[in-house]
Amino acid sequence: MRENKKSAAGACACILAAAALWGIIGVWNRRLMAGGLSPASIVVVRNFGGMALLSAVFALRDRSVFRVKRAHLKYFFGTGVVSVVLFTLCYFTCQKLCSLAVASILLYTAPSFVVVLSAILWKEPVTKRKLAALGLTLVGCALVCGVFAGDLTVTVPGILLGLGAGFFYALYSVFGRYALAHYDSMTVTVWTFLFAGPASLVLLRPAEIAAAFSSRPSLWLTAAGLVAFSTVAPYILYTRGLSQVEAGRASIMASLEPVVASVAGVVLFQEPMSALTAGGIVCVLAGVYILR
User: Fold this and answer.
1) pTM of the prediction?
2) Contact 136, 266 (CB under 8 A)
3) For residues 182 and 198, what is the distance between their CA atoms, to the nearest angstrom?
4) Would you say 84 and 196 are in contact if contact means Cβ atoms under 8 Å apart?
5) SS3 letters across 95-136
6) Which residues contact 174 (CB under 8 A, 6 or more apart)?
7) Backbone angles phi, psi at 47, to 5 degrees
8) Quick count: other Cβ atoms within 10 Å of Cβ 267?
9) How confident is the model over 154-171, as pLDDT tens digits?
10) Count of other CB atoms within 10 angstroms of residue 89
11) Contact 265, 187 (CB under 8 A)
């Protein structure tokens, strides 16, 4: 019993660490955008770079991760293309049609989708504690993202795309859960990016990427940080945690991401923190604490 509790605690720690690493993605993105890369190009760098790094590491360390059954490739198409790539396309398009705050909170409807789908697919119980945590984290994310600050731009296509981003984002936990029934977390992560990397090339802007990296060689180091610390590492950690924690619970805990992003903005970029933002952080932390 003690071993099970220790294992569950370790899985939760992995998920929270993944959320924290996703939360600092803005640190890398801001530097890359300042260097001339568009969000679409950053997606290519992130996903293709993640594929290259994982492939290189495991080609030397453990090639067994590349051996999977053809019948199971559908799960990795789901995690890599349907989730990682499509959620990004929907999210960036939503940001063009709506305010950033609206796009962000629509993305964080993902835990709600995961809870519902998990209850349908695996009969995961929808407990009062889980609903309370879901409500707290959703309100907290709304506060942190600035939804109640006013001056928001909202369009119907934007809302649909934002909800699509949340839905596709949620599907990583769903497809990932199916894949984890057959493979370990490392194999699932590697194959996710073997699909996501090539699929991201639809966004490729060769001239833009070449101009940015040739004019500012220091961007290579920033791109390496994005790939290693805010792409590969968090996906490995989250997938490992997902292998031992209910999908709905894992997704709610990952809502810590915008809290870390907000704190990083204050600490690293001297962004102001309003009372609403602080209240949102408290709500998210309370929701995560409930699920401890």
Assistant:
1) 0.91
2) no
3) 24
4) yes
5) HHHCCHHHHHHHHCCHHHHHHHHHHHHHCCCCCHHHHHHHHH
6) 78, 114, 117, 118, 121, 247
7) -75, -45
8) 10
9) 888 988 999 999 999 999
10) 18
11) no
Three-point CA angle 228, 241, 136, nearest 5°: 100
**CA–CA dist 37, 54 (Å, integer):** 23
The pLDDT tens digits for 95-142 are 788 877 788 888 889 999 999 999 999 999 999 999 999 999 999 998
Neighbouring CB atoms inside 10 A of 52's CB total 14
Q: Going by C-beta distance under 8 Å and a sequence separation of 6 or more, which residues neighbour residue 41?
A: 32, 203, 204, 205, 208, 209, 212
Phi first, then psi: give them for residue 123, nearest 5 degrees: 60, 30
Judge contact between 75 and 175, C-beta under 8 A: yes
User: Would you kindly state where each structural domain of the chain is located, as residue ranges?
Assistant: 2-290
Tokens of 62: 């453990």
If you search the block for the tokens 């699909």, which residue do you land on? 195
Cα 28 from Cα 22, distance rounded (Å) = 11
The amino acid that residue 36 corresponds to is: G
Q: How far apart are CA 116 and CA 126, in angstroms?
A: 8
Buried b (16+ CB within 10 A) or exposed e, 218-239: ebeebbebbbebbbbbbbbbbb
CA-based Rg of the chain, rounded to a whole angstrom? 18
Residue 145: name the closest of 23, 11, 2, 4 by CA: 23
Q: Specify the residue for token string 């995690």.
A: 79
Alpha-carbon gap, residue 19 to 253, rounded angstroms: 8
| Encoded tokens for 285 | 């932390």
Report the distance separating Cα 115 and Cα 118, nearest Å: 5
Tokens 């992003």 correspond to what residue?
Answer: 261
* pLDDT band, residue 151 (cuts 50/70/90): low
